[in-house]
Amino acid sequence: MLLVMDVGNSHTVMGLYEGDDLRAHWRVRTGNYHTADEFRVLLGLLFQQEGLELGAVSGFCVSSVAPQLDMALERVSKTVFGVNALMVGPGIKTGIALQCDNPREVGADRIVNAVAGVEEYGVPLIILDFGTATTFDVITSKSQYVGGVIAPGIQISMDALFEKCAKLPRVDISRPAFAIGHNTVDNIRSGLTFGYADLVDGIVRRLTAEMDGEPTVVATGGMAHLIAGIAEGIHHVDPLLALKGLKAVYRRNERGSA
């Protein structure tokens, strides 16, 4: 079986593939530092809950934006699974041409999203990822990744309000009944949800105007369902997009990963 792992700044999403079937998937918090032993214990518990054995893993593919964890993950792959981890980065076959100023700056998470997006939805394409940052990735009709947009994430904005404005409370992020908030909590919720939905629609319009054709717009990440229910420009929500992309990247590089 193939274990795939998308290590983000705030959360790590993992999936276990048996052939083309996603046998199990998990979402956990990303710690600042973990040892190989801690990862082994965590994976062991997750596998145990699903009635699975760590020994069933024959391949391991990782996209990571937390370089301080990469060495521990590579060690886990060798000592627990007996394979070399395939770490998404420069030199890895993806099928996506990076036509931006500095391809090495493009995050591995954005690359695997693009790979899955092209396979699942075709081109041209705009991918939104609602993570710690909200990112917009643009893939042309020639399957070229040409760049995008990075904006502060919804949770970061909520945290900034709470930390910098002494009288504002921390609230759960949900859609209020009306745009006009009649109390402080709904004022904040309206700004976060309707504000981000309009940000999405506005940026998507600007990106579309610079693209060669009408793009399909796909959203992923923790807040994707919430914002997609308000924004008008999102066509699909795919919470497992990164896992699909990791599977596709692994298969393109499978011979050299074992």
Topology, element by element:
Blueprint: E1 2-7, E2 11-18, E3 21-29, H1 36-49, E4 59-64, H2 70-81, E5 86-87, E6 97-98, H3 108-121, E7 125-130, E8 133-139, E9 144-152, H4 154-164, H5 184-209, E10 216-221, H6 224-228, E11 236-237, H7 241-252, H8 254-257
Parallel strand pairs: 1-4, 4-5, 6-9, 7-10, 10-11
Antiparallel strand pairs: 1-2, 2-3, 7-8, 8-9
Helix pairs in contact: 1-2, 3-7
Could you explain the architecture of this structure?
With 258 residues, this protein is of the alpha/beta class. It folds into 2 domains: 2-87, 2-Layer Sandwich (Nucleotidyltransferase, domain 5); 97-244, Nucleotidyltransferase, domain 5. The protein has 8 helices and 11 strands. It has helices at residues 36-49, 70-81, 108-121, 154-164, 184-209, 224-228, 241-252, 254-257; strands spanning 2-7, 11-18, 21-29, 59-64, 86-87, 97-98, 125-130, 133-139, 144-152, 216-221, 236-237. The strands form 2 sheets. Strands 6-9-8-7-10-11 form a 6-stranded mixed β-sheet, with helices on both faces. The chain is globular and about 55 Å long. The mean pLDDT is 94.
Question: How much helix, percentage-wise, in residues?
Answer: 25-40%
Classify the secondary structure makeup into a structural class. Answer: alpha/beta
Q: What is Rg?
A: 19 Å
Topology as H/E string? Answer: EEEHEHEEHEEEHHEHEHH
- Which architecture of the largest domain per CATH? 2-Layer Sandwich
Strand fraction equals 15-25%
The gross shape turns out to be globular
Instruction: Provide the number of structural domains.
Output: 2
Q: How many alpha or pi helices?
A: 8
Largest β sheet strand count, sense and barrel closure: 6 strands, mixed
Sheet with the most strands: spatial strand order: 6-9-8-7-10-11
CATH class membership of the largest domain: Alpha Beta
